[in-house]
Amino acid sequence: MIEVLMVMGTIPGRVAVLTDALEQFRAKGVTVRVATTFDPGENIPAATELAEVHLLPTSAELGPRFGRTVKRANPARRPWLRAQRDPWVRRHAKRADVLVALDAQALHTVWQLAQRYRRADAVYGIAPALRAVEKRSADPARYRRPRLNTAGPAPAVLVSATRSQTVDLAKRVFEMSTGKRAMKLGPVRWFWQGAVTAPGLPERHRGKIARRVTGNMLKSGHATSAKRLALAAQGRLKSPTTRGQLLGPIVDAELSQGKVPEHLMTVVRGQLKLADAFLKKRNPGKAAPHVLRAFNLMFHRIVQFDGATSPLAENPEEFLAPLHNSEAGRAMATPRGRQSPAAFPPAGRPHRMLFFTGLNDNFLGPILERYEAMPGVEVRRLNLMEESILPVLSNGRTNVVHHMLAGSSKRAGEVQEAWGPHLDWADTVFVDWCNLGAAMLTMIDPGTTRVVVRLHSFEAFSWWPHLTDWSRVDDLVFVSEHLRDLALAAVPRLGAPQGPRTHMINNAMELHRYVAPKASADSRFTLGLVGLSSLAKDPRWALDVLRELRRRDERYRLKLIGDALNPELSPAIKAYVQELDAELAELESSGAVVRFGRTDDVPGALTDVGVILSTSLRESFHCALVEGAASGAVPVVRDWPFFAGRPHSARTLFPSDWVVGTPEEAAERILALTASEEVWREAGRAAAAHVLSTWDWSVTQKDFDRLLLEPPATAD
């Protein structure tokens, strides 16, 4: 009796053809067995009645490691990887007279079986299978005689199997010796330290081995060994990309611990090199994730926000050079401009103003109220938090990066559809905060509408100015000169011919609300610090000042107004809060510090504050300090370290005698101006008069009127 073993790698397009062939085989008395990669009961139920049909074992049945091997393999090899471990297949292949591949996916499997069981005929397709059966039926005696050249598997199979077993063994040994469990052993870590730095090791192998070993060292809790090995290996690597990939996990681990990584920019450069390679292949979609990864590292909060300084503040040109010099950076900096210049509204109708609102309106209140009440001005608000708008903003940063790298995108069309009618209506659009709203607005041509953006301190240390097409912004407003200096250095295209006009206009502050008599003469001994919710406020500096004062006079105390720092935001903040709480516990017990907490009545909370502090590491302006000065408190301003010593800083923003360099200088200023009630009240009146005449909304509103209501002039 003739036996046939068929292999099917895919579901047949015409099941009837298969069943017809099986009926022919049955009529000839042939035993047919079929091995499939899919469930035969669901897909070829008729065939199960005509032949013995067997489902090859699944990846799950063969174990997770084998499952990964199957997943990584070429699709044409996957049926064979499942079949070679199947006893049913081996048993019936050994007895088969004809081996049949019923589709292209089964060819490799049948070829492998034919190399191992050479007495059988191997064919591709049903018609050749029928002919092979007929040939054997016509001369059965010939096929019963064994031939020496068909005994056992082909020599090539033996060689291949030996090589495969050797490779498998080597892979297993490598995986075990570089695994997480092995990395817990000191001698193993020492061995790989030497192995990855050995001369002569090809770069691709060195990088691959080093990445696996360092990764498992990190997982096993040996971060120091991992960093030592990675640094040693990267010294022998030529490719910036490979070096960046190797050091990436080390950098991520250090960031998670609240540390600014020494080799941060090595990883950034590697990511930008990968992005550039994809851009050269005209594949911006694959470049975008690497650009986003670079942004996540450069503007990580540990790097820019949660430390005593930031690399961007120290040297913006040098820090951002890898971005600006990359193909990706140049693609994102490409100005796309507008077809028509912005037009001033015609006479005879109201000036139409559109304000973006919803994301953060803290500094917009007086501005909105003024123009909503002004004759000759019509105001609309586009609330970016409305349900109809939110889908446009979803996954916004990723979509903006894709758009800037490609030069166009589907999302830009959606922004045009959602926001276009509002822009068509408006003469001027005002976007407070250079963040997602500003970046997405510049994805589209604003037509003849004038676009005004205001940039605060936070955005200057973020990726958003680099994701905004400044050729579509007409006017960019800063609240201080030192912030403008930083932004122009960090984003060179702001100063390009197609860049926006830049202006310095202070925040809109209704300072007269804060004018109130002090509770008593003893208020002069109370220091006030308003706003504690970010590490940049650095309240520990205020405690240094307080301790210095109390060394001489224990009547001084500190009143903390506002929400406390959230230690869950980052490891750096958590460490800072632990130190702050330890200091506060000592001072609170003696009544030297009072935590007032958050309040909606800041003017009321300031009535017993005689000295208002600005202890920050960085500020764009510091409204809370000016509000405190308006209340009659004596201002004491730390020379903000992020900007100290620059052409513009706290010393050029405020009267020079307000600004101090150290807690000791702060204490000397406070002692001198609170020495008597008369001296203190006079100093408070002078400070209040200065801020009210310089920064009150009654004064600064004229600057906004010139910006928004008058035809554009040159930059301030």
Automatic annotation (TrEMBL):
SUPFAM superfamilies: UDP-Glycosyltransferase/glycogen phosphorylase (SSF53756). It comes from the Bacteria. This is Glycosyltransferase. It comes from Micromonospora zamorensis. The lineage of its organism: Bacteria, Bacillati, Actinomycetota, Actinomycetes, Micromonosporales.
